[in-house]
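Exercise 7b. Backbone tokens:
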């Protein structure tokens, strides 16, 4: 089985935020999970305690107890070549990757105040009026991690099964978009909701910003940076939803490891 690295090995100079989850995905099911974990080594500088957690039978994620320290270097060595992973599945190759963690950037989006605080290394450096998901399509609660950013993106409800002529179907081009889950939640510009931003929640689940604020957010926040959503009225972000990993308590996270005592 070929091990793919999560996130993909970065291009030169690309760094990640303190919420970045790392992991390995296999193209065959792994039945001997303990053997797989024992072949995976994470080295952090400075040292931080972390643990593996199986998301499904092909995917294992690793995170520390709380967000990475700013400036951390994270090295993942997947020494999987020839390792018996059970059921006739063997590791096809060794892989190694190093990730650099940049300063802590955390956005705290509050559905009660309809404001989003921006924190740099723990200090509030700005606040932006927002509109979260309306009652019918509330934004997920909990820590989200930015997994992708595009200056423009087509948002199409049909990608998750809501197609015209169904009520609530939509397709639109949005700008300064940063993905925070895999079910259509982004932080992005929405000029149409500027009058509601700061006062009411009217989106399809995204975090809407004014054009000026969206561009400023896009320029500052990147992959692995954190968006914590509170008071949205929505359910907790699911573990499997790209990076729902931070929703779990440390004890629950460790329980998902095959080698945890």
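Sequence design result:
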């Amino acid at each position: 089985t070929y091990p793919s690295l999560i996130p993909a090995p970065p291009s030169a100079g690309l760094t990640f935020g303190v919420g970045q989850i790392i992991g390995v995905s296999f193209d065959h099911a792994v039945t001997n999970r303990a053997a797989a974990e024992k072949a995976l080594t994470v080295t952090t500088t400075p040292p931080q305690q972390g643990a593996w957690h199986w998301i499904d039978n092909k995917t294992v994620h690793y995170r520390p107890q709380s967000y990475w320290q700013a400036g951390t270097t994270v090295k993942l060595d997947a020494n999987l070549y020839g390792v018996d992973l059970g059921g006739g599945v063997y590791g096809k190759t060794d892989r190694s990757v190093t990730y650099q963690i940049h300063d802590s950037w955390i956005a705290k989006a509050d559905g009660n105040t309809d404001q989003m605080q921006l924190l740099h290394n723990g200090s509030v450096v700005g606040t932006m009026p927002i509109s979260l998901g309306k009652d019918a399509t509330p934004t997920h609660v909990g820590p989200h991690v930015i997994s992708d950013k595009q200056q423009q993106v087509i948002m199409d409800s049909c990608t998750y099964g809501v197609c015209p002529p169904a009520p609530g179907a939509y397709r639109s081009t949005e700008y300064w978009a940063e993905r925070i889950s895999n079910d259509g939640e982004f932080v992005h510009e929405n000029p149409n909701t500027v009058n509601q931003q700061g006062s009411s929640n009217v989106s399809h689940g995204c975090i809407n910003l004014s054009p000026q604020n969206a561009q400023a957010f896009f320029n500052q926040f990147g992959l692995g940076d954190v968006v914590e959503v509170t008071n949205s009225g929505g359910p907790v972000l699911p573990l499997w939803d790209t990076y729902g990993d931070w929703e779990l308590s440390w004890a629950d996270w460790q329980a998902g490891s095959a080698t945890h005592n």
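Instructor comment: The longest helix spans residues 211-220. The two ends are 27 Å apart (CA to CA).
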